[in-house]
Amino acid sequence: MFNNPPTMSPDQIAEALARREIVLVDVREPMEFAAERIHGALLYPLSTFDAALLPKDAKQPIVLHCGSGKRSAAAFAACVQAGVPVRAHMRGGIGAWKAAGLPTVTIDPASGAVRDRR
Questions:
Q1: CA 64 from centre of chain
Q2: 7-117: CATH, from 3.30.160.340, 3.40.50.150, 3.40.250.10, 1.10.1740.10
Q3: What are phi and psi of 32, to 5 degrees?
Q4: What Cα–Cα distance (Å) separates residue 76 from each residue in 20, 35, 71, 80?
Q5: What are the distances in angstroms from CA 79 to CA 52, 54, 86, 99, 114?
Q6: What is the pLDDT of residues 62-80, one digit of tens each?
Q7: 4 pLDDT band (50/70/90 cuts)?
Q8: Nearest by Cα to 62 from 8, 117, 108
Q9: How far is 1 from 18, CA to CA, in rounded Å?
């Protein structure tokens, strides 16, 4: 198992996303993703995670994230074991992203409207 996967801060990830340098993969479960997500992140839940199915583009390496960093570290280890290249995982997960004041996308439960949140 890969004990210390490389990490990126939420700010580093936000900058890399803005420059389209990475693909952000969310390994949380579908209900978590539906409730709140990072714009542009792709969903690959850890419960059904298969590293071989991740997008492959050498120009845009994969960065993983979850709620706190634990599941993305596990997904990173699965990628290493499968021989699938991944750049890093987000330190602190979406919780750290929100603490840094970065935007998320949510669904308003009353109306079903999509909302960008800061």
A1: 4
A2: 3.40.250.10
A3: -65, -45
A4: 21, 24, 9, 6
A5: 8, 9, 7, 28, 32
A6: 999 999 999 999 999 999 9
A7: confident
A8: 8
A9: 32
Which two tokens mark 92?
């602190």
Would you state the structure tokens that stand for residue 12, as one six-digit string?
């580093």
Instruction: Name the amino acid, one letter, at 114.
Output: V
- With beta carbons less than 8 A apart as the criterion, state whether 56 and 77 touch: no
Which residue reads 């993983």 in tokens? 64
Closest of 85, 83, 77, 94 to residue 29, by C-alpha? 94
Residue 2: predicted pLDDT: 54
